[in-house]
Fold this protein.
Amino acid sequence: MKKIFIILIIINVIIISAIVYLTKNQKHIDALQLLEEQYSQHHEPSVDHTQFSVLQQKFKSPQDVTAACLSCHTERGKEVMKTRHWKWQNEEYIEGRGLTNLGKKNILNNFCIGIGGNEQSCNRCHAGFGWADTTFDFHNQHNIDCMVCHDNSGEYFKQSGGAGNPDPSVNLNKVATHVGKPKKTNCGSCHFYGGGGNNVKHGDLEEAQMNCTKDVDVHMAKNGINMECVDCHVTKKHVIAGKMYSVSSTNTNRLSCTQCHGNTPHELSVLNEHTIKVACQTCHIPTYAKANATKMTWDWSTAGKLKNGEPYHEEDSMGNHSYLSEKGTFVWAKNVKPEYVWFNGTADHYMFGDKVDTTKPIAMNTLRGSYSDPAAQIIPVKVHRAKQLFDPQYGNIIQPKLFAKEKGQGALWKDFDFNAASATGMKYIGQPYSGTYTFVHTESFWPLNHQVAPKEQSLSCVECHSRNGRLANITDFYLPGRDRHAGVELFGIISIIVSLVGIAIHATLRIISHRKELK
Amino acid sequence: MKKKVYIYKAYERFWHWTQAFLVFFLAFTGFEIHGTFEFFGFRNAVIYHNAAAVSFMILIVFTIFWHFTTGEWKQYVPTTKNIKAQILYYAVGMFKNAPHPVHKTELSKLNPLQRIVYFLLKVVFIPLMVISGLLYMFYRYPHNGNIVSINTEGLTTIAVLHTLGAFIMIAFVVVHLYLITTGTTIFTNLKAMLTGYEEIEEEESKN
């Protein structure tokens, strides 16, 4: 009877343990397969634009194309004019500043610094035609560039230094009759090349993603489901979901992995629980700049050196510019491990008039958040570090004039004169310049969201749960495997040692007394 | 006159050895999670540690049931009776080959020091480990397809208490292992816990 009772208990324990084990291992893999099926299906257009007579006319200017577009899509122009792609600024509330109206139009960045005075070059990526200076008409719908986003012929491109106008070689009739949903090539034509070259800015967005393997980007891979940007960046009334905190500030209209993958995509509950404090990207983007290098540092202070009176360039081992007389010295890197920060979806930006501490790097953008902030998660970032022009008297970062087509207009890239470029640039945007300049260290923070790795390559636990792991710099919380309480460690080790020593003494005495007795 | 007494019942031995294994396994996987060494790998260590913790809690539930249905809980009520004699025995008497001051019987198999230590283990240290462990596991948990967390300042207090308890458990196990050897002969106690039977002086058995 007793034995039966005991056997029953043992069996119970085993069964219950087994149940606890197995219930945790229920699979969610079906969900991934469903997503793959869904996103492998390619969009079939419902309209053939070659058949519309309004598009058969001989277009004399790109504005004529836009007028033709708007003759059918009558309300779309108004939509576009409300977007960031058009305004290059946006009304957003920033804690500590109030309502701001920031964007590419007026923000300083860590690369070519600012667009004011450099519009002809920078504004090649504006979704409009001819924003060459402050006189550009933002209320003229015909200045909208529909083609840069909707060209499906692959032949449209904007002229270098052309203030957003198409290159004269583009056959506007062909482009206008081959329009449709934006493809990678459309978005990529600007977003891959920000900062003056492929993968300069983001580090996780570059031309290799037009034709890459799953190792580089599991979503955009040619041998995978080959997703288009707009599959995730879904668009309503031309407002595109997702934002980049180099220019954005609020926790609105964001994209997240969970909108497709859900909040509990892992088999292991303990992994799902990480999502309270850890963004998906942290584990699933182990490295960035996987196919081509990205720019990690930019030192403007060395710009302006000439050889025989002519600008020159030097290249690093990967064939990227390591020095340009126009821009200074760069360091590029490939397969970079991200740095990690807390982020609650809100950011601040450097603005003229901000008091800065030049003993440490000035943050061009600040990603906010901390452990105690329930909205914050740890995210991976690319930190781009630079040395920029600074006015020690007024305490401002200087926005120099960089671009001009001719010499003698104060542009750094033609005249190689920091003082003239500073004076001209600051005057253009209506900011004071004292006449003296120096250089300061600056940093910008780029959240990494792309180049997601296949799940087999995601971070293993000990990448963070170890003494000197990837999160060694985020110290405002207790991380198992990394942290320990010095007092408890000491107490613990001492109690074990005291126990062992006590035992050793006691045992020795026992042995001695035992031997005495034997004698 | 010595008499063979059935002193540790079958369930008691099952409980003891299962607990012994689980404590060892929890300590091993626990200190791997703590970053002390690497063996199973962090991920497996966490999975095993959690599974062992669940098994341990099931064992505890059954054992509490056993304690109360059999009345064995009375064995663990601390007493000050003979405590000085017991301390003196370990500190002095043992080296003079003095007899054990307190004798095991079926009704009272623990000496006063054991009573205190096991009592503390049962009402302080194991509950500390279980409660801090449960908080460790469940301070965040799935709810309606989301993960939510109870409002904690974080793991710091929970984890530090859990680690403190772990060190105390290890110190206990170290001393416990040694004290096994202090029976009538070196292996008497071990044998008793394995077979259930121990030879006890008959005339002293009415303690």
About this structure: Chain B is about 60% helix and 10% strand. Chain B has one domain: 2-201. Chain B touches chain A through 49 residues (CB under 8 Å). Residues 42-70 of chain B form the longest helix (29 residues).
